[in-house]
């Protein structure tokens, strides 16, 4: 067996590793990398979603049948207390009894003192009870007008208010102070064509007063009472004319205000007027539905038709809606022209600008 001798360099010591020179290994050159062209991916096939099953309509479970809604009734007017109703009943009986007693006394029929005393006590007690009830209603929070309306019937209040306005018109007529014309754009009087009739009626009342005064000269008490009534009648007739003079028709802003004496006052917005006509009429149907005729001297000269009804007051009872109003003015053509121009102005007025849109 042949021994393999390890070749050592000269001078090398034992135990040192041999340092035979190793020749460098030559590596083969790598080929130049060319541009890598990615392999084309296969085109993705369009995915068609599977059709969903049609949803079946859900039928709600039948519930209990809904009960029909009951009609809402308007609130009932406040029920007056038993004391107020009792006071009204006593007043309805006591006041006519006092009037009958007064007439009997004027006729010269002797009245027992006891009957006269009882009637006066009842009247004073009624007035005292009315006053105490009024104070109690005021303490409950009612206004003066509402408290009086609880005690006095509405018809009586209207008559009293009308009488007071008539008498107040006499003072305004003398002082030349018309009612509510300071802020009016135009004023249209309407009492001229009835003046002759009213003055003639007042003169007839004066003649009648003089005749009754002569005939009743032998009955001083009756003479005095009739004289007071005659004077009041003359003042009332003159007051009717004064109320017409001091309450003319007015045009203020966009509202036409039509009045007659002291009992009719109607405000008509101009945007509700459909047409205005100047026509002279002497006959009017007083029972026509939805019409208001404010005749002066049995004539009207301006007709106003409305697109929507307005409320016209009645002397007794609630107001009623009207869509046609006939009125009169001393200068009817001036009223027609002013009203026609005002209605045209309201119809052609530009609409208000909406302004810039709000910012986000």
Automatic annotation (TrEMBL):
Annotated stretches, region: Disordered:
1-77
Q: Which UniProt keywords apply?
A: Membrane, Transmembrane, Transmembrane helix
Give the Low complexity compositional bias ranges.
20-36
- Compositionally biased region (Pro residues): 37-77
Q: Where would you find the membrane-spanning parts of this chain?
A: 89-109, 115-135, 196-215, 221-240
- State what protein this is by name: Integral membrane protein
The record lists the lineage as: Bacteria, Bacillati, Actinomycetota, Actinomycetes, Kitasatosporales
């Amino acid at each position: 067996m042949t021994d393999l001798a390890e070749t050592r360099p000269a001078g090398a010591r034992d135990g040192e590793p041999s340092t035979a020179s190793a020749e460098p290994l030559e590596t083969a050159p790598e080929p130049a990398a060319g541009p890598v062209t990615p392999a084309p991916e296969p085109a993705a096939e369009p995915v068609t979603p599977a059709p969903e099953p049609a949803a079946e309509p859900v039928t709600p479970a039948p519930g209990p049948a809904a009960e029909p809604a009951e009609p809402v009734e308007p609130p009932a007017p406040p029920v007056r207390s038993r004391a107020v109703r009792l006071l009204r009943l006593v007043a309805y009986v006591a006041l006519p009894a006092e009037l009958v007693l007064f007439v009997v006394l004027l006729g010269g029929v002797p009245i027992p003192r006891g009957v006269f005393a009882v009637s006066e006590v009842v009247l004073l007690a009624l007035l005292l009870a009315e006053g105490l009830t009024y104070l109690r209603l005021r303490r409950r929070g009612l206004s003066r007008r509402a408290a009086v309306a609880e005690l006095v019937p509405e018809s009586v209040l209207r008559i009293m208010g009308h009488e007071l306005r008539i008498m107040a018109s006499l003072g305004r007529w003398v002082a030349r102070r018309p009612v509510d014309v300071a802020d009016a754009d135009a004023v249209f009087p309407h009492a001229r064509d009835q003046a002759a009739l009213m003055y003639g009626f007042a003169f007839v009342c004066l003649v009648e007063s003089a005749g009754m005064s002569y005939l009743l000269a032998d009955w001083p008490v009756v003479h005095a009472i009739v004289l007071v009534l005659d004077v009041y009648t003359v003042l009332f007739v003159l007051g009717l004319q004064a109320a017409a003079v001091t309450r003319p028709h007015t045009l203020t802003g966009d509202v036409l205000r039509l009045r007659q004496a002291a009992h009719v006052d109607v405000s008509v917005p101009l945007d509700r007027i459909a047409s205005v006509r100047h026509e002279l009429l002497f006959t009017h149907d007083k029972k026509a539905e939805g019409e208001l005729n404010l005749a002066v001297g049995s004539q009207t000269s301006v007709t106003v038709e409305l697109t929507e009804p307005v409320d016209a007051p009645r002397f007794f009872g609630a107001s009623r809606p009207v869509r046609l109003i006939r009125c009169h003015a001393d200068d009817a053509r001036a009223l027609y022209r002013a009203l026609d121009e005002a209605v045209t102005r309201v119809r052609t007025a530009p609409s208000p600008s909406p302004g810039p849109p709000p910012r986000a």
